[in-house]
Every structure is written in structure tokens, then in C-alpha cells.
Design goal:
2 copies of one chain form a homodimer. By secondary structure, chain A is an alpha/beta fold. The first copy, chain A, contains 8 helices and 7 strands, in the order αβαβαβαββααβαβα.
């Protein structure tokens, strides 16, 4: 019981921290998204593509969460975005405590969009709220259509779901219909976007969704200022 | 600091439990393997193939670790093996405490091989020792060759590494050479087996490795009995 109470306390203090960090983002009118997936589903590829597409019209910053190393940050910087590599030193998820030193140094003034790439893990990141307006969950077709049934929390916490690697559909056993049905059982109206970061197919729909979110957010925060 | 000490205590008591469970397996001369991977890399497909190939010559039991549901246990039972579905109810890994009630009911007498399929996660399962003689880590080619660099603990703790979905090699960016080099930097002499559970290619090498392990184990435990 002590263990469970301790876990509840950790989660509650993390929620409070995320709330505080989110207020800071709102004050500076920075939209934030938290991208989650299992290892190798294509989070960094999606970030690279997003930076390429939006960097001329929006000011972006990326936080790369990894257990160790800076492979992903290098990839993002090569696309022309600012990036902070956050190493969790073994931990299986990002949380508010880890983000505090990053937020302390981040130049939020003038920023439009913050992209947080979580640690590759379909379980734990869903338990720790981050300062994000939207949770984005990525699944790749080789992982199989049964993932929402087996990892329900991640999908329940998502505001948009991306099916990546649709170029591999002819070579793997993945049913878009079966997957979407399982997702909709957990979250009836969540948008599901099909794309391939490799070929570029479907990316337009993702960019449109993200730009729509940016515009809605800017309208909302502008009204609040008046 | 309190949090870290608590974690150390949890891991230490888990180690002791795993040790106790392993002694029980040794006494009954049951070889045990712990299969780990990220979600959708093909653990259950490997178990299905292994059951098909060995069930006529060895007596097998499978423990299926999943957050929820019994999809995987159904697949294994359909291949003709006995199976216990273990639901972690949200937890991201299996540990000794969760295995205790399973071990209490398991008929070990006459069993040759216990296969434990861990929760799909490349991070946390590596931290919790299980009653297993060998840790087997699976990676699938669509996940990318950088995984040992990004999830080093999992690969360091592995006694054999399997590259699954080699049938997808023409369609994905995966370098066997780059992957193997990264693995060998963590664990110089670990066997790396390439296969496809889908097409069956390379499976012979895995069965040979496993039968070799079974034979060595039986020779060793027979000597101890004399």
C-alpha cells in the first residue's frame, strides 16, 4: 500500500508541475505537442518532416527525450530546428521534473511550437502528464493492428493518432480497419492519420492538422489577451 | 534520495525472489528463457514457431506477460502448448512478485522448457531479473539499426539476440552490420540470429541454439544429481 500511495504522490506532483509549465507556455503563446510511440515507430522521422515543412512559417523548438545519446537531436538540428537533447539516464519516460531544467533555459519569447519527443515506449510515457496541449501517438504498420487492445492507456490519452510506415502495408499483416476499430473503442472521435515518413505519402494531412491546431491556439490565446 | 533507496530495495528483493524461483526450476530440471522486445517486434510469433517446432520432443509451458487481455495466450494455446496469461494491469514489465502466483500453480514435474514472454517494452523489463537461464532480446528490422545505442541496458543483459522480420530488409533502412557492431560494443560475443517468423527463414538457427541450450542444461543438471 505504501508503494501505491508513493506512486500516487509522484504522479500528483508531476501533474502540478506539468500544469505550471503549461501555464508558462500559454503565457508565451507557445503550442506544445508530446509525441509518443514504441521504439522505432518513426517519431524522429516525423519530427524531421515536420521541421522541414513548417520551419519557414513558424518558430519551432524540439526537446528530444532519450535514455542516452544524442543521435536524434543531431538528426533534428540537421533539419534546421533548435533542439534540446534530454537524457533520462535509464528512465523509461519523460516527466515534469526532467523538463524543469530545460524549461529554465528555453527562450519561449517568439516561439510558436514546442515539439516534445518522448522516450520510445508504449507503456510508461502515457502515465506521466507533460506540458503539452496535444498528445500524439504514433504506431507503425509492422507492429500489428492489436496494439490498442494491448496498450490501451497510451491510445486513451491521445488526441491524434498517426499510423506510420503505410508504404510497408503490402508486406506486413496490418489491418487499418481492425486497428481503427480498436482505437475508436477507447476514444470514439480521435483523428487517425495514415502516412509514411519515408515516402511522404499522407504527410499533408498531418501538417494540416498541426497548422489547424496552431491557428486555433493563436486565436484562443489572442482573445484571452484582449 | 528516498526514492532511489526504495527502488534499490525493490530491485534487491526482486533479485532474491528470482533466485528462489530459479532454484525451483533447477531442482525440476526445467530450462527457462525470458523473451524481451519492444511492442510488435514478434515475440509471440517466435513463441508460436518455437512451440510448433519443439512440442513433439519437449514438454513446454509458456507464460504470456501482457498489460491486459489474453490475445497472445490464445495464439500460443492454438499451437498446442500449455500457457498462463499474466496480466500486469498497467505495469510495464514482469517481475518476481507477479510470477509468484503463477509458480505456485505451475506443474514443473516433467516439464523441459519454460518460455516467459515479457511485456512489450525495450526499457523496463531489462531492469527486473526473472527466473530465467537465458535472456533473449528480439529486434525487428523496421525498428532501425540504432536501437542498441538508444536502449543499451536491454542489449547488455541479453544472452542471445534475434533480428526478426528479415523479409522486410529490402523495404526498410536497417543495416545488419551497423546493428551488430553496436550490439558487440555492448556485449562482444553475444550470438545474433537473423530470421523471419513470417517466412520461416533462419528459424533453424534459433531452434538449434535453443536445443543446444536444452542439451547443455540437461547434462549439467544430470551431473549435479549424481
Amino acid at each position: 500500500m505504501a508503494e501505491i500511495r508513493m506512486m500516487q504522490r509522484i504522479l500528483a506532483s508531476n501533474d502540478a508541475l506539468a500544469e505550471k509549465q503549461l501555464s508558462l507556455l500559454n503565457r508565451h503563446r507557445v503550442l506544445s505537442i508530446n509525441i509518443m510511440s514504441g521504439p522505432g515507430a518513426g517519431k524522429t522521422s516525423l519530427v524531421e518532416r515536420t521541421v522541414q515543412a513548417l520551419k519557414d512559417r513558424y518558430r519551432l523548438w524540439v526537446i528530444e527525450g532519450d535514455i542516452q545519446g544524442d543521435l536524434d537531436a543531431r538528426r533534428v538540428v540537421a533539419q534546421g530546428a533548435g533542439c534540446t537533447q534530454l537524457n533520462t539516464q535509464g528512465a523509461c519516460h519523460l516527466d515534469g521534473m526532467m523538463l524543469e531544467p530545460v524549461f529554465a533555459r528555453l527562450e519561449l519569447e517568439g516561439l510558436d511550437l514546442l515539439i516534445i519527443e518522448n522516450v520510445g515506449n508504449l507503456v510508461c510515457p502515457a502515465e506521466f502528464r507533460l506540458p503539452a496541449h496535444y498528445n500524439v501517438t504514433l504506431i507503425s504498420t509492422p507492429e500489428g493492428s492489436d496494439k490498442p487492445v494491448k496498450y490501451p492507456l497510451m491510445f486513451s490519452k491521445s488526441d491524434v493518432i498517426i499510423i506510420n510506415k503505410i508504404d510497408l502495408l503490402p508486406h506486413v499483416d496490418f489491418s487499418i480497419e481492425q486497428f481503427s476499430r480498436a482505437v475508436r473503442r477507447l476514444k470514439p472521435r480521435v483523428p487517425i492519420i495514415q502516412l509514411s515518413c519515408r515516402t511522404g505519402a499522407g504527410l499533408r494531412e498531418w501538417f494540416d492538422w498541426l497548422e489547424g491546431a496552431l491557428k486555433r491556439f493563436h486565436r484562443k490565446t489572442a482573445r484571452k489577451r484582449e
